[in-house]
Specification:
This protein has 4 domains: 86 residues, Arginyl tRNA synthetase N-terminal domain (Gyrase A, domain 2, 2-Layer Sandwich), CATH 3.30.1360; 168 residues, 3-Layer(aba) Sandwich (Rossmann fold); 79 residues, no CATH class; 132 residues, Isoleucyl-tRNA Synthetase, Domain 1, CATH 1.10.730. The strands form 4 sheets. Strands 7-6-5-11-12 form a 5-stranded parallel β-sheet, with helices on both faces. It is of the alpha/beta class. The two termini are 35 Å apart. The structure holds one RNA strand.
Length: 576
RNA sequence: GCGCCCGUAGCUCAGUGGAUAGAGCGCUGCCCUCCGGAGGCAGAGGUCAGAGGUUCGAAUCCUCUCGGGCGCGCCA
């Protein structure tokens, strides 16, 4: 239990002691934005004023009196409309430092997820080419959500869904076949509409190596399926390797073909039909859009409009075959059948409206017990030398994930992708992410960690017989931590567990990145204070005990930075 | 036309219903010549797009308006 939870419990207990009938759930304890308001503040008096039948300030005084009984509370004051501000004795904060040192990497983790089964589906690019700039953001966000939710005690499955049953993979197979002939010595030309990328040459060569001339004189009906299977496998292998470059590994790969062949589409359709949600009818043509070829027709429709969609949706085409939406609907049935109660999908903003078709299905299949949260991630604008890079598949001008990682490193790519709310467009500037300056958040946070490592290295030399392992530092006499800036640092560290919990609950890993920047700022400020005033330096050769206390605080800070970077999936730097 | 998302400092953006709305960049003025330089401190800069509503309290929740983005097919 973190310090805020402890205080929340304490405040609620004191309120209950005044009147057991009052509701406690709306009482919160938080950090006031303005530090002069105290170190923690509670809204208890304001939320209960009505029940108590007295003005908030008057109730606040009663509660405040109770809070003053806490042995570690130094001061309780009232302010504003009825806030109760609490200031603690320094010991209250200091106890956190050895707690962090002992908890190590687990500090900040919790069990608020209570083992709930969560499925995070991300990347899910079709197996037709390498990972590129357009995939990176969603990939990193998805992976960070996985790490975040695991830290908060959820049972998370990282999943990749790919479509290996559509027209795209047939084109892939045909392209691979041409490259295969090329590998066997022919001169080939890749027609318009095929995949022009060089990477398929390797696939052709591998196929030639495996099967020799076996397919040369066969016609397409014979080679299409085996070569498609081969090519898809190769593409997925490549994609996995690409993702591994930035530390992403999915637990489960699900493909459309198996769902279709397993009859799941029929099953899903039957469930909807049995619930009376299927009918045959006619849809009006979409308005505001040119529809030259619109022909009214009777179609098999899903009453998705009953669940928030703005129109019912066709599940079968006029010829009786399934529409595009159907495999996805069936896939989400599959997830629910596997026992997930929270489904998280990471999609580009161009699929924004598509959630309205999937959410109704999830609601129906789970009887409202499962929820689908789609995280939409906006565009990444890539800059090189300060100039925006125009990306287009057709001109073959793509920036691959591999290229990004090789140029700036996996950690920088990952951190950068989380420095904005997913819905916000993001600039990725090759020059900026490796810049060693304050306005590069990756550097700024890493530098803070590296500075601490540097101090630890120097400490061993500067002070004889100084034990600097975490266990020894946890024994340090922390009464030496008496500077306001040091206590402020500890307060910042104390927020970490609730940052993780809150970020996990709303599926927003970028909050971790923002917290890390705040934390790094505190650290840099502490560091610079030592330059202005020699007594504030971390290492004081003639005061080993004080030095130990400060090193304990630094190590605790480094552990939290490392934990935060861990959720983002970045290795903390030992030196720059 | 309909749906979803966005609108916060000059720029790029944070901000789980709380107090005087924050950070970086840019601007102004300082400090730091080394525990490790790439940092730190301070200042100027805001009708939180607008109008109603809910609430003790709204940038945050609801409704409407304006502006921008993405979508809206028997394509995938």
């Amino acid at each position: 239990m973190n310090l805020f939870e402890q205080m929340t419990d304490f405040v609620r207990a004191q309120v209950a002691a005044i009147n057991p009938a009052w509701p406690l759930d709306r009482i919160t304890v938080e950090t006031p934005k303005d530090p002069t308001h105290g170190e923690m503040a509670t809204n208890a008096a304001m939320v209960l004023a009505k029940e108590a039948g007295m003005p908030p300030r008057q109730l606040a005084e009663q509660i405040a009196e109770k809070l003053r009984a806490h042995p570690q509370v130094a001061e309780v004051t009232l302010a504003g409309p009825g806030f109760i501000n609490i200031k603690f004795k320094p010991e209250f904060w200091r106890t956190l430092v050895p707690d962090i040192l002992r908890a190590g990497a687990t500090f900040g983790t919790s069990d608020i997820g209570q083992g709930e089964k969560v499925n995070v589906e991300f990347v899910s690019a079709n197996p037709t080419g390498p990972m590129h700039a357009g995939h990176v953001r969603g990939a990193v966000i998805g992976d960070a959500v996985v790490r975040l939710l695991r830290a908060a005690g959820y049972d998370v499955t990282a999943e990749y869904y790919f479509n290996d049953a559509g027209a795209q993979v047939d084109v892939l197979a045909r392209t691979a076949y041409l490259r295969y002939r090329e590998a066997l010595g022919e001169t080939v030309e890749i027609p318009e509409g095929f995949y022009p990328g060089e990477y398929l040459k390797d696939v052709g060569a591998a196929l030639a190596a495996r099967d020799g001339k076996k397919w040369l004189d066969k016609n397409e009906t014979e080679w299409l399926v085996p070569i498609r299977t081969f090519a898809v496998d190769e593409m997925m292998k490549m994609i996995r390797e690409d993702l591994a470059l930035i530390g992403i590994r999915h637990d489960v790969f699900t493909n459309e073909r198996e769902l279709v062949e397993g009859g799941l589409l029929e099953t899903a359709f039957k469930i909807l039909d049995d619930k009376g949600l299927i009918y045959v009818g006619m849809l009006p043509p979409p308005k505001g859009k040119e529809m030259d070829d619109w022909e009214p027709a009777e179609l098999t429709l899903f009453r998705s409009s009953q669940f928030g969609d703005n129109s019912d949706r066709p599940l079968k085409k006029r010829d009786g075959s399934w529409t595009y939406a159907m495999p996805d609907i069936a896939y989400h049935l599959d997830k629910i059948q596997r026992g997930f109660t929270t489904l998280i999908n990471v999609w580009g903003t161009d699929h924004m409206a598509y959630q309205d078709r999937i959410k109704p299905a999830v609601t129906v299949f789970s009887d409202g017990k499962a929820r689908l949260d789609v995280i939409f991630n906006n565009m990444v604008k890539v800059f090189k030398n300060g100039e925006p890079v125009k990306l287009s598949k057709r001109s073959g001008n793509i920036i691959t994930l591999r290229e990004m990682v090789e140029q700036v490193g996996a950690g920088a790519v990952r951190f950068m992708m989380l420095t904005r709310d997913p819905k916000s467009p993001l600039d990725f500037d090759f020059a900026k992410v490796v810049e060693q300056s304050k306005d590069n958040p990756v550097f700024y946070v890493q530098y803070a960690h590296a500075r601490i490592c540097s101090v630890m290295r120097h400490a061993a030399e500067a002070v004889a017989d100084l034990k600097t392992d975490d266990a020894a530092l946890a024994q340090a006499d922390l009464a030496h931590l008496d500077a306001p800036a040091e206590i402020a640092m500890i307060r910042k560290l104390s927020e970490w567990p609730r940052i993780v919990a809150a970020a996990a609950q709303v599926h927003e890993p970028h909050r971790i990145a923002f917290y890390l920047q705040d934390l790094a700022a505190e650290l840099h400020a502490l560091w610079t204070a030592g330059k202005d005033d020699a007594q504030l330096r971390f290492i004081l050769p003639d005061q080993p005990e004080k030095t130990r206390a400060r090193l304990a605080l630094l190590r605790a800070s480094a552990l939290v930075i490392a934990a935060g970077l861990g959720i983002i999936g970045v290795e903390p730097a030992q030196q720059m």
